[in-house]
UniProtKB/TrEMBL annotation:
Signal peptide positions on this chain: none
Listed name of the protein: Acetyltransferase (GNAT) family protein
Pfam family, one: Acetyltransf_10
GO MF annotation terms: acyltransferase activity, transferring groups other than amino-acyl groups
UniProt source species: Hexamita inflata
SUPFAM superfamilies attached to this UniProt entry: Acyl-CoA N-acyltransferases (Nat)
Length: 136
């Protein structure tokens, strides 16, 4: 398994987002990509396990680093790939607290990875989310 980081979004990352968010979760494809994908403050991460299986982006947000567009292919879940991706982001930004607006259905995953709830439930793309953070 290999985790790489890039300053810009790659075709493989686009394919992962479409597979997980659009095809699996029915999120409109038009909102999967935005201006933060090309921002100088954004770093993109991708996990390869013979082929691309997971990705996310991380960007500076206030005094923290915000994880966004975190996705793992359905066939690759339950193999600690998500945990390794979170750890790679933290290792890339060792002096920063990580925050995420997590899908409520994934709250237990984030808790297992050291995140705690920091806000009320809200909706993004018509899916329940909750703000969470991971202290250093």
């Amino acid at each position: 398994m290999q985790i790489l980081s890039f300053p810009q979004i790659t075709p493989e990352i686009k394919q992962l987002r479409v597979a997980v968010f659009h095809l699996e979760q029915n999120i409109p494809e038009r909102i999967l990509f935005d201006e933060n994908d090309s921002s100088a403050s954004t770093t993109h991460f991708i996990v390869f396990d013979q082929h691309p299986v997971a990705s996310c982006r991380a960007r500076f947000y206030n005094n923290d680093v915000k994880i966004e567009r975190f996705c793992v292919l359905k066939t690759s879940r339950g193999q600690n790939i998500g945990r390794k991706l979170v750890d790679a982001v933290q290792n890339h930004f060792p002096k920063f607290k990580l925050v995420i607006s997590a899908q409520l259905s994934a709250e237990k995953f984030w808790e297992k990875n050291g995140f705690v709830r920091e806000g009320e439930e809200h909706r993004e793309a018509d899916i329940p989310h909750v703000q969470m953070g991971r202290k250093l």
